[in-house]
Write a structure and sequence with these properties.
Elements (H helix, E strand, L loop, with lengths): L2 E11 L17 E10 L2 E7 H7 L5 E5 L4 E4 L1 E3 L11 H8 L4 H6 L4 H9 L3 H17 L2 E7 L6 H17 L3 E6 L13 H18 L5 E2 L10 H13 L3 E6 L7 H8 L3 E4 L5 H10 L2 E4 L1 H6 L7 H6 L3 E4 L13 H11 L4 H8 L1 H6 L17 E4 L6 H4 L6 E6 L2 E5 L1
Parallel strand pairs: 1-4, 1-5, 6-7, 7-8, 8-9, 9-10, 10-11, 11-12, 12-13
Antiparallel strand pairs: 1-2, 2-3, 5-14, 14-15, 15-16
Helix pairs in contact: 5-6, 6-7, 7-8, 9-10
The structure holds N-(iminomethyl)-L-glutamic acid and fe (iii) ion.
Length: 415
């Protein structure tokens, strides 16, 4: 296979880094004018100014890809999604438009539990088919690595089916999928008041099977008022950690419970949502190195205040931004929407938003050593934008500017 030389990119953004960028570093995206990237198979061989790269290769031995007038970036990493589910909840969205709240719908039996019923009824083939469609859409938005959670089964059989659907899709679809076990996503009525028992069931009956089949890398929990308490979440997370899972937490979304502090205490890789994270929680995340994953499209769809992303970065946190694609609180995985909300409402610069969607997203899924930046040795995951600078991303508001997606060195999407 010929090497591929991408050259003359008007702006080439490398996002260089082997780990997450914190605080002020988030603005350092390493932009190269008239930039080039050399791909050897599925790996990046070199990155730099076009002149430099051209002088180091035999041009006649390369496939040349012209990128004049384009911005070239690392593929985006969507580090928090629930993209495997059965059924839809459009009715809930219309109720919320009329003033209903997410938690009150959940308390009367809708919400996550409604998706649990629909997902239990869905076959593996159906979950795979719907999942494939969603992955295709992600690819068009320039996403080349995605995290996906179970959590719409709550029982052993359906949790495993969701995870197996992801395993199958990971093998057949160009996107890389990082799977997360989210068995404690909700409490079914029969377990109300017996949350510990439910968690023990997950820990002793489901997680060992997940581990034996290699179906998940992370364990996650919905730590929220009327769902799982901080104490129960801590119990579950520590046990999951002992079993070898890396940790994530749905933290401080609706109520300020102390999920951010808990994330720091248990050494979670990320704490996600954080709309209500306290000042102390923000300090703890910055100090401990937990990645603060913000999901602004969820806040937008729920008409909630956005997470305090500006403050988190100013306090030294490593912020990632992700879609949270799911059938309830946020049925969108629009990257242009995330960029608009990040820049306009969370007061991040476009450089910070790009870091949040690339190297910090990669770190949030434990992949910062292989994806999230354009550097020699990393996976050849590269996207091209229609316009010559990153500043078109927020400016051409809400529009998908991605024209070309290269995944593992192969062009997998071309507008
Ligand atoms: O991340 N907050 C909890 N879990 C999901 C929502 C899932 C759903 O409503 O189906 C979230 O927003
Ligand atoms: Fe979520």
């Amino acid at each position: 296979m010929k090497k591929r030389l991408i050259r003359h990119a008007s702006e080439l953004v490398t996002c260089a880094g082997k780990g997450p960028k914190r605080g002020r570093e988030m603005a350092e995206i390493h932009s190269i004018p008239d930039g080039a990237v050399l791909l050897a198979g599925d790996t990046i061989e070199a990155v730099g100014p076009t002149k430099e790269l051209e002088s180091s290769v035999r041009l006649e031995e390369c496939e040349i890809i012209e990128a004049a007038g384009k911005t070239v970036l690392p593929g985006f990493v969507d580090s928090h999604t629930h993209f495997i589910f059965g059924g839809y909840r459009a009715d809930e969205f219309s109720w919320r438009l009329k003033g209903d709240s997410y938690m009150s719908i959940m308390e009367r039996g809708g919400g996550i539990n409604a998706s649990v019923t629909a997902t239990r009824a869905a076959s593996l083939e159906e979950l795979v088919a719907r999942g494939r469609e969603r992955l295709d859409t992600m690819l068009e938005f320039g996403v080349t690595t995605v995290e996906g959670k179970s959590g719409y089964g709550l029982d052993c059989e359906t949790e495993l089916r969701q995870l197996r659907a992801m395993k199958q899709l990971n093998a057949e679809h160009p996107l890389d999928i990082v799977p997360t076990f989210l068995g404690p996503h909700s409490v079914l009525p029969e377990y109300k008041g017996r949350e510990r028992e439910f968690l023990d069931k997950q820990l002793t009956e489901v997680l060992p099977l997940v581990k034996a089949e290699g179906l998940a890398e992370f364990a996650d929990i919905f730590c929220e008022k009327n769902v799982f308490s901080v104490e129960d979440s801590e119990y579950y997370l520590n046990k999951a950690k002992e079993m070898g899972f890396a940790l994530k937490i749905h933290a401080d979304e609706m109520v300020q419970l102390g999920g951010s502090e808990l994330a720091a205490r248990v050494g979670a890789v990320s704490a996600d949502h954080l709309l209500q994270a306290s000042d102390e929680g923000i300090r703890q995340m910055a100090k401990s190195g937990v990645i603060s994953t913000l999901l602004p499209a969820t806040a937008f769809c729920l008409k909630e205040e956005f997470a305090r992303g500006r403050k988190m970065i100013d306090e030294g946190c490593a912020v990632a931004i992700a879609s949270d694609l799911n059938p309830g609180s946020c049925f969108t995985n629009s990257i242009p929407l995330l960029i608009a909300l990040g820049c306009i409402y969370m007061h991040l610069s476009i450089e910070e938003v790009i870091t949040a969607l690339t190297i910090n997203g990669a770190a949030a899924v434990g992949r910062a050593d292989t994806v999230g930046s354009l550097e020699p040795g990393k996976k050849a995951d590269v996207i091209f934008l229609k316009y010559p600078s990153i500043h078109f991303l927020p400016y051409h508001t809400g529009i998908n500017l991605v024209e070309t997606v290269i995944k593992n060195g192969k062009t997998v999407y071309q507008k």
